[in-house]
Amino acid sequence: MKTLSRTLLGSLFVAAAGLALTACSDSAEQAAPPSQAAEKPKPTVTVYSARAEHLIQPMFDRYTEETGVKVRYITDSAGALIQRLKAEGSNTPADLLLTVDAGNLWQAEQAGVLQPIDSNVLENNIPDHLQSANNEWFALSVRARTIVYSTERVDPSELSTYEALADDQWEGRLCLRTAKKVYNQSLVATMINTLGEEKTEEIVSGWVENLATAPHSNDTSAMEAVLAGQCDVTLVNTYYFGRMQKENPDIKLALFWPNQGGRGVHINVSGAGLAKHAKNPEAAVELLEWLSSPEAQHQFAELNQEYPANSEVEPSDFVAAWGDFKADSVNVESAGRLQEEAIKLMDRAGYR
């Protein structure tokens, strides 16, 4: 009887202790501060990018280090990515489309694969002429398409404007990249916007008459033709010149900023827009805002010797050494809006 009583008392003691521990545990959980609660998993932002991997991966890696948000990217040409977004529709994994040239960004907007972005940060960081009128895309870097000339055969005092390259003095001295590339299409489109179609066609026809060689496949090839003495001047995006200059600081080429007494140098952009069916729209916009911030803008532009889209950010020392210039302030959206007209005009002028 005594043994039974001791056993019963022991069991009651253990049960009471267990209830006390349970009560303490419940109380502790209820009193736990919010900081100890399980954090919501951070999303992964998926980017469809027409920019080369070596130009975007360093930025995405840095963003992940700072925020913990992972960035997954898929690279392809702008046209292929736009078509992919259309085909995938609401099933797309893409949150952002990142590409070059305002013409491509405008085409994406017209294809209905982007959606408006409501962001005071982007509005404050990116000038109006470097963004979509409907806020469906924003520039992230700026490139100038300007004149490159031989320092051995051209006195810069001979140069003045894009239009003047159609003059007789440049007969047999001009090289151009093919008209099939969007960069020259955008230049001609903005000329149509400013000068009108008739005047622009007259100028482009003059360029064709002055060609020393058939149009080249890319800007680098056109500059190599200048170095080889096949021609004396050409039109290129500044970062192509920057790449050659980095490889050979003593290169016998130089940049000239045309139209400084008028509309200014033609500029274009790389930029990004929010995918229409983004699965992580808030996280995608936060990434885009970060890319537009002073912290990221300098490095984003420096990776390809471009200019920051954020006007409060200075270019790299390497790019700044090319000198200041007046840039055309026409909205770069016109490069897309008038792209079809530009292509038809170039074809009529015999520019292939």
Explain briefly what this protein structure is.
The chain is an alpha/beta fold. The protein has 14 helices and ten strands.
Task: Describe this entry's structure for a reader.
The chain has 352 residues and is an alpha/beta fold. It has 2 domains: 44-142 and 269-318, Periplasmic binding protein-like II (D-Maltodextrin-Binding Protein, domain 2); 144-266 and 336-348, Periplasmic binding protein-like II (D-Maltodextrin-Binding Protein, domain 2, 3-Layer(aba) Sandwich), CATH 3.40.190.10. It has 14 helices and 10 strands. Strands 1, 2, 3, 4, 5, 6, 7, 8, 9 and 10 form a 10-stranded mixed β-sheet that branches. Strand 1, helix 2 and strand 2 form a beta-alpha-beta unit. It is globular and about 70 Å long.
Spell out the blueprint of helices and strands:
Layout: H1 2-31, E1 44-49, H2 53-67, E2 70-75, H3 78-88, E3 96-100, H4 102-110, E4 114-115, H5 120-125, E5 138-150, E6 174-175, H6 182-195, H7 197-210, H8 219-227, E7 233-237, H9 238-247, E8 253-256, E9 266-275, H10 281-291, H11 294-302, E10 307-308, H12 317-320, H13 334-337, H14 339-348
Parallel strand pairs: 1-2, 1-3, 6-7
Antiparallel strand pairs: 3-9, 4-9, 5-7, 5-8, 5-9, 5-10
Please give a handful of descriptors for the protein shown.
352 residues, D-Maltodextrin-Binding Protein, domain 2, 2 domains, ten-stranded mixed β-sheet, 10 strands, 16% strand, globular
